[in-house]
């Protein structure tokens, strides 16, 4: 299928229009993450070979971006399917080693804390049920075999419930200082599309690449491709609902080709108002309820100068521009990453991903996925981005 329209949209104008036209649209309170850093690096699905795509009026890339920015869907419900293949080995029993409990100060690490669900979408295919009724009522449920995890935002209350462990996590919003929303990972095509559009600049080609049917809806396909070499990103394809402007689907493949790294899209969607009872929640009898830290105590917890990655991220810097930009920070941990003999399962997992490198910066280890790579030097510095191993080494050499 030939491109519906081939046009490089003016990057600066796109970015400004996207920011200024964006309304206070529905933001889902989501329980899980695919891998936050990949949200702006979504790849392209090969064009459909048949001629069954909808015949829609012509639209430019600039007009389609503006349509997304002006989208103001306040009510919806549906099912989202997310598949992720970063090329990581099965985490299996390492899950608890990599993310042992909550980072939100809940103390004993409730399994219902959204942060405890983060590793689950790193690999495999998952189904989410989503519902929204304005900015104050949203629900996302992760459907598991014989169990379900739900995160419900209703007014000032945010509830997480893990049916497998019968545990409940509860936090109360406190205006702009609320803590749970700050770390929201993307879970719907809209979430990913918003992050992807922020990456559009003069290093990017933006075109309209035909039309498609998604979840029974007619949609345009927006194609975003990096112009730079050195990035692992292939392209971004976003299916945009022709009527509402809501992103319905995105797919990510790396520049190296092969299967999609991330594929997320609605399989069913309705724009009718969900029943009010959808957002009601009362902790089940006998459930263990964990209250999140709130107010000054919680904010003080965030400001603690911890060691390792958490402490280092506070001083993060960005090197380079566009798709080949690299984030760097100092963990303060000397001696590089622990080996398998030093830290058991976690060290063995890291060893399986690591590739020893050296340069003007010294020595270090590159940990690779099919999309995002990270160099951890022996003196405790980290360089990470959707770039090749050689690009990381060059960034480390330049940053020394």
The global form is globular
Portion in helices: 10-25%
On the 0-100 scale, what is the average pLDDT?
76
Question: What do we call the CATH topology of the largest domain?
Answer: outer membrane lipoprotein receptor (LolB), chain A
Describe the 3D structure:
This protein has 2 domains: 11-291, outer membrane lipoprotein receptor (LolB), chain A (Clam), CATH 2.50.20.10; 305-399, TATA-Binding Protein (2-Layer Sandwich). It starts with 10 loop residues before the first helix and ends with a helix. The chain has 8 helices and 18 strands. The chain has 400 residues and is an alpha+beta fold. Helix 1 runs parallel beside helix 2 (61-70). Residues 1-51, 91-107, 175-183, 299-311 and 340-344 have low confidence and may be disordered. It has helices at 11-21, 61-70, 95-98, 189-197, 295-303, 308-312, 340-353, 389-399; strands at residues 75-85, 123-133, 137-144, 147-154, 157-162, 167-172, 204-214, 217-226, 233-241, 247-254, 262-270, 288-291, 317-319, 326-330, 354-359, 362-368, 373-377, 381-385. It has a 12-stranded mixed beta sheet with strand order 7-8-9-10-11-1-2-3-4-5-6-12.
Compose a concise summary of this entry.
The chain is α+β, with helices and mostly antiparallel strands and 400 residues long. It is built from 8 helices and 18 strands.
Jot down its keywords.
400 residues, alpha+beta, outer membrane lipoprotein receptor (LolB), chain A, TATA-Binding Protein, 6-stranded antiparallel beta sheet, 18 strands
How are the SSEs ordered, and which strands pair?
Elements: H1 11-21, H2 61-70, E1 75-85, H3 95-98, E2 123-133, E3 137-144, E4 147-154, E5 157-162, E6 167-172, H4 189-197, E7 204-214, E8 217-226, E9 233-241, E10 247-254, E11 262-270, E12 288-291, H5 295-303, H6 308-312, E13 317-319, E14 326-330, H7 340-353, E15 354-359, E16 362-368, E17 373-377, E18 381-385, H8 389-399
Parallel strand pairs: 6-12
Antiparallel strand pairs: 1-2, 1-11, 2-3, 3-4, 4-5, 5-6, 7-8, 8-9, 9-10, 10-11, 13-14, 14-18, 15-16, 16-17, 17-18
Helix pairs in contact: 1-2
